[in-house]
Amino acid sequence: MTKIISNMEKSTVGSLTVITGCMFAGKTTELINRYHQVKEDVIAFKPVIDNRYSQSEIVSYKGKKIMATRIKNFTEINNYSQSNIFIDEVHFFQEDIVFYLNQLAKVGKKITVAGLSWDNFQEKPFSVMVNLLATADFIIKLVAKCVVCRKRTALYQQWKLDWLPQQAEDYVGGAEKYGSYCRLCYVPLNSSKKLFMR
Ligand SMILES: [Zn+2]
Predict the structure, then answer these.
(1) Whether pTM exceeds 0.85
(2) 144 and which of 120, 151, 180, 193 could share a cystine (Cβ 3.0–4.6 Å)?
(3) Tens digits of per-residue pLDDT, 9-24?
(4) Distance, CA 192 to ligand 1 centroid (Å)?
(5) Whether 57 is catalytic
(6) For the CA atoms of the chain, what is the radius of gyration?
(7) Sign of CA dihedral 161, 159, 47, 85
(8) Distant-in-sequence, close-in-space partners of 7: CB < 8 Å, separation ≥ 6
């Protein structure tokens, strides 16, 4: 299932590769596999908010991991000289990161990011992802298995608990909080349900 880095991607000077999809689609696994293919002059980052499993590593749902530097603001990347930059959970950053990463690609950096496409609480795509996808050189769109019909066509994840997140940390979680759903099986978290839950 893992896609290898194509010769076209390898031959570019600076580039932006975006891996996206819903939760449980294998985005972090894809990022980790690509990180291992680069081998040298490489660094990985993740936002401070993501503290599940590990403080200093990027860990996939299936337990694969790489060392990562935790950053609060994306401009902290300026402090590192590596040419190959990997960022997980990129949808947690401010939208300005889109311009910033495109500037880095312009000066020759090879950037690979992974981020969630769909914000199930806002019921729309993350705008940072929309803009990253629009400016990407290469896009890898992954799908998950739907928890209802079991088809591997899930595009969305949905919160499945009877309480709603109250603070930023509450949103971070895995299968204990979220399920993945296909287009047909996905049910929006509508406003009446949100009110009822609160
Ligand atoms: Zn389904």
Answers:
(1) yes
(2) 180
(3) 766 689 999 999 999 9
(4) 23
(5) no
(6) 17
(7) positive
(8) none
